[in-house]
């Protein structure tokens, strides 16, 4: 078992459920008015976003490194009646990446306390966007007080830092949103704090 798999298996194995089961707010806000197509959900965790998309008619590939998270996601998708619209795949995105092109590629809070090449994975995500499709990256712009407490300081890139790292080819991408947006967040013990999200929304042109 790789270090990445081991870390995330311990993370998901520590609780019966890690996430709320609710769709990420920025994803819902941006995708709600869109016509459904093919979607790729990177770091899908326990599958809430993938299930939300499938309920709205999207065909979804959900990717995570943790077998435990993917098992829970598969069970929840079946219980929601959308299992046939979602294919869950295990990938360590530093090593392998799902095949195909997608009308929507979503990376919601694709952070890790491990030393991984996040920029390389996001560039591969951009390469997977079909002509006319969208790349949506939502990052932590500020850390909540209940975030990772592993003794290390983790750099949180700005929205512009993320775009700079992607190095989108001029004339091939349209910047729809590159900004920081504040929201109220609730922690695992019910704590409440105002934090910011970086929202990066790019459209692949012809």
UniProtKB/TrEMBL annotation:
- CDD domains, sorted: AdoMet_MTases
A GO biological process of this protein is:
methylation
Residue ranges constituting the Methyltransferase domain according to the UniProt record = 40-133
What SUPFAM superfamilies does the annotation carry?
S-adenosyl-L-methionine-dependent methyltransferases
| Gene3D superfamilies to which the protein is assigned, alphabetical | Vaccinia Virus protein VP39
Signal peptide range in chain numbering? none
The alphabetical list of record keywords is:
Methyltransferase, S-adenosyl-L-methionine, Transferase
A Gene Ontology molecular function term for this protein is:
methyltransferase activity
Q: Name one Pfam family in it.
A: Methyltransf_25
Q: This protein is called what?
A: Methyltransferase domain-containing protein
Q: Which organism is it from?
A: Mycolicibacterium litorale
